[in-house]
């Protein structure tokens, strides 16, 4: 997939950034993956946290702060956190989705089986998105933290990146934004 670099909020304003995102998200399966990049303390996190209020009702933005230390205890914890936030944001918008039980996530035989189980759950989420003509935007802030997580051996970041690549290539109703 291609990346669409986004100008940071200091230069274009939050509303313009949201309009740029909406335009690119509306491209369907041809939409790019997004990269929001600028110097520290320029307002990137604030913009990402405000996206649910700035984007139109066709878009469900879910913010993830990848600096949260407990997030990386293991792959089950990470995917459970993703699922909880996706389910919460969809429920807020009147879209009922059953989240996977954390216990079920933890009982998968290995990380590959865990990602497979999560992928099945995410496919059911995507069916709802298609039916309701919505797009899910997963906004991953502080993406560079994944390098530290890999070095500390908390989880297999290679599997996570492969999963993200799969999302980019095969899930037209789910978009990724890295910051």
Strand content: 15-25%
User: What is the string of SSEs from the N terminus onward?
Assistant: EHHEHEHHHEHHE
Overall, the morphology is globular
Alpha-carbon Rg, integer: 16 Å
How many strands, what sense, and barrel or not for the largest sheet? 5 strands, parallel
Major β-sheet strand ordering: 1-2-5-4-3
Number of helices: 8
Q: How confident is the prediction overall: mean pLDDT?
A: 82
- Give the low-confidence spans: 8-12
Instruction: Give the oligomer, counting copies of the same chain as homo and different chains as hetero.
Output: single chain
Q: Gap between N and C termini, in Å?
A: 17 Å
Précis, in short:
This protein has eight helices and five strands, in the order E-H-H-E-H-E-H-H-H-E-H-H-E. By secondary structure, the protein is an alpha/beta fold.
């Amino acid at each position: 997939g291609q990346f669409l670099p986004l100008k940071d909020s200091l230069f274009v304003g939050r509303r313009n950034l949201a309009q740029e995102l909406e335009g690119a998200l509306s491209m369907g399966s041809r939409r790019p993956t997004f990269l929001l990049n600028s110097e520290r303390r320029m307002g990137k996190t604030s913009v990402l946290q405000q996206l649910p209020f700035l984007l139109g009702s066709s878009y469900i933005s879910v913010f993830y702060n990848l600096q949260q230390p407990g997030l990386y205890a293991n792959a089950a914890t990470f995917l459970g956190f993703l699922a909880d936030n996706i389910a919460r944001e969809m429920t807020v918008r009147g879209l009922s989705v059953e989240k996977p039980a954390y216990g079920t996530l933890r009982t998968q035989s290995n990380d590959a089986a865990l990602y497979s189980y999560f992928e099945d759950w995410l496919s059911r989420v995507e069916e709802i998105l298609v039916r309701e003509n919505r797009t899910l935007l997963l906004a991953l802030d502080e993406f560079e933290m994944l390098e530290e997580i890999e070095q500390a051996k908390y989880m297999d970041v290679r599997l996570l990146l492969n999963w993200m690549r799969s999302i980019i290539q095969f899930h037209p109703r789910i978009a990724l934004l890295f910051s």
